[in-house]
Amino acid sequence: MKINYELSEVEDVAKQLIKHATSKTLLFYGNMGVGKTTLIKAIVKELGSMDEVSSPTFSIVNEYETENVLIYHFDLYRINHIEEVYNFGIEDYLDSEHWKLIEWPEKIESILFEPFDVINIELSSENDRILKLNK
């Protein structure tokens, strides 16, 4: 699936991603500033969480609640060695049945297991994005 969108359409993109995702593990690839966190905020809201969503760049993982499930939002940008993710128990998160939204998943590709959906986001202009969902 490929979607061209403007930032003002991010809520609609979140709905489409949730509808077309084949798993609860979404891997977000894209350069810094492309809008990964902005899209994740919209996904968390669309899944029903009323929590304040912020980038977990320093905490590495944020947890959001809905009525039925938890959502784990990872920002692995600051991870330098795979051992760092084991220090906070990433395997417990990855083994859960909850939603896992992972920014910078290339840092932990060696420990990821399917099923997961890959989301690539690119800038096509200052306000336009191209999103590709690969299953």
Protein architecture, described:
- This protein has 135 residues and is an alpha/beta fold.
- The protein has one domain (2-134): 3-Layer(aba) Sandwich (Rossmann fold), CATH 3.40.50.
- Helix content is 24%, strand content 30%.
- The protein has a seven-stranded mixed sheet, with helices on one face.
- Strand 3 and strand 4 form a beta hairpin.
- The longest helix is centred in the first third of the chain and has 11 residues, at 10-20.
- It is globular.
- The mean pLDDT is 92.
In short:
This protein is an alpha/beta fold and about 140 residues long. It is built from four helices and seven strands, in the order βαβαββααβββ. It has helices at about 10-20, 35-45, 85, 90-95; strands spanning about 1-5, 25-30, 60-65, 70-75, 100-105, 115-125, 130-135.
Quick tags:
135 residues; 7-stranded mixed sheet; alpha/beta; 4 helices; Rossmann fold
CATH architecture: 3-Layer(aba) Sandwich
Oligomer: single chain
Number of helices: 4
Number of DSSP-assigned strands: 7
What is the count of structural domains? 1
CATH superfamily: P-loop containing nucleotide triphosphate hydrolases
Q: Average the pLDDT over all residues and give the rounded result.
A: 92
Give the helices and strands, then pairings.
Blueprint: E1 2-6, H1 10-20, E2 25-29, H2 36-46, E3 61-65, E4 70-75, H3 83-87, H4 90-94, E5 99-103, E6 117-123, E7 128-134
